[in-house]
Amino acid sequence: MQSFNPPVRTLMGPGPSDVHPRVLQAMARPTIGHLDPAFIGMMEETKEALKYAFKTENELTMPVSAPGSAGMETCFANLVEPGDKVIVCINGVFGNRMKENITRFGGEAVVVEDKWGEAVSVDKVEQALKDNPDAKIVAFVHAETSTGAMSDAKAICALAAQHDCLNIVDTVTSLAGSELRVDEWGIDAIYSGTQKCLSAPPGISPISFSERAIQKLSNRNTPVTSWFLDLNLVMGYWGKGAKRAYHHTAPVNTLYGLHESLVMLTEEGLENAWARHSANHEDLKHNLEAMGMSFVVNEGDRLPQLNTVWIPEGIDDAAVRSRLLNEYNLEIGAGLGDLAGKVWRIGLMGYSARKENVVLATAALKEVLASQ
Ligand SMILES: *Cc1c(COP(=O)(O)O)cnc(C)c1O
């Protein structure tokens, strides 16, 4: 057996994205105890910086010690009680997973379905709320990474509030990549990931809960069925002020990485990070369209950080992606579900959202396509 030395790639798929060298260096620093006062100081800074990234004052804002999917499960495990009716919007892979969470925690899912590649229809959500006055929660994906479509989180959250529903919002791909305002938009429970637009490695899921969400959690009739994700217990470790108690061993070095990525986000400025993703998207879009490719998602609903384009007629999807990987060390994403074999998903997330990546992806695709 030998040490594992991964090839150096440029990651322009749906995640993970390129991790900034500063983040990798931070992760190589000495491991200390997860109850060490120095570590606790770093945890407090991390929580404050996450509030900045989410644009929230929510006290319960913290990183879950597991990937984005665990952040998703944290929201549903804590907020859905057996028998709760939950309106869930499905316009891609991740909406489907939300539905799976609802039913596994004993909830009743009312599905609002939209075509893959389209944004969630706000009108359909309104109709579902009218048809289901007993619904308790509306759940949807802000940035659907399986298709590249962005939904109107502000409008959907406002509708949910009008009908006395809480909302659960997936922002794994939107956090730090496009406009997101937790308090202003009235988001109640939100989860994200570190490996998309935060330039950090996978394995951590930032979450935030509003006062209303905490109230629902406090008024539960039944205990949260997941021990690890029960926020009542997790907050004994991550909560502010309270004497910290052992819950689980935090992933110390990965959290150094998240902390460093948040230092970098505050240096750049959140709005500047959103603008950088947009600017690079505009450049890439211009180049791809000049090569004759067209986008799957309508212009107004596109995610700048995930560009989904139709694969040109007669082109071998797998052969192109494998040549990009082997000859250019460039990873782009394949299509999922119904879009498998039909689209490419080209990510511009976090540290990957850079001019040199746009140039590399354009040039590499041009050469490989020309040879086909
Ligand atoms: C990537 C992603 C997830 C899952 O995150 P993991 O870190 O892979 O568990 C959930 N939702 C969306 C929209 C994502 O893009």
Write the SSE topology.
Layout: E1 10-12, H1 21-27, H2 37-54, E2 60-64, H3 68-79, E3 85-90, H4 93-104, E4 108-113, H5 122-131, E5 137-141, E6 143-144, E7 149-150, H6 153-162, E8 166-170, H7 182-185, E9 189-191, E10 205-209, H8 211-218, H9 231-238, H10 252-268, H11 270-290, E11 306-310, H12 317-328, E12 330-334, E13 343-347, H13 355-371
Parallel strand pairs: 1-12, 3-4, 3-5, 5-8, 8-9
Antiparallel strand pairs: 2-10, 6-7, 9-10, 11-13, 12-13
The chain binds pyridoxal-5'-phosphate.
3D structure, described in words:
The protein is of the alpha/beta class. The protein contains 13 helices and 13 strands. It folds into two domains: 10-15 and 270-371, Alpha-Beta Complex (Aspartate Aminotransferase, domain 1); 21-266, 3-Layer(aba) Sandwich (Aspartate Aminotransferase, domain 2). The strands form three sheets. The protein has a seven-stranded mixed beta sheet with strand order 2-10-9-8-5-3-4, sandwiched between helices. Strands 1-12-13-11 form a four-stranded mixed beta sheet. It is globular. It starts with 9 loop residues before the first strand and ends with a helix. The relative contact order is 0.17. The structure holds pyridoxal-5'-phosphate (PLP). Pyridoxal-5'-phosphate is lined by residues 15, 67-69, 72, 94, 141, 143, 145, 170, 172-173, 193, 195, 202.
Sum this structure up briefly:
By secondary structure, this protein is an alpha/beta fold. The protein has helices at 21-27, 37-54, 68-79, 93-104, 122-131, 153-162, 182-185, 211-218, 231-238, 252-268, 270-290, 317-328, 355-371, and strands at residues 10-12, 60-64, 85-90, 108-113, 137-141, 143-144, 149-150, 166-170, 189-191, 205-209, 306-310, 330-334, 343-347.
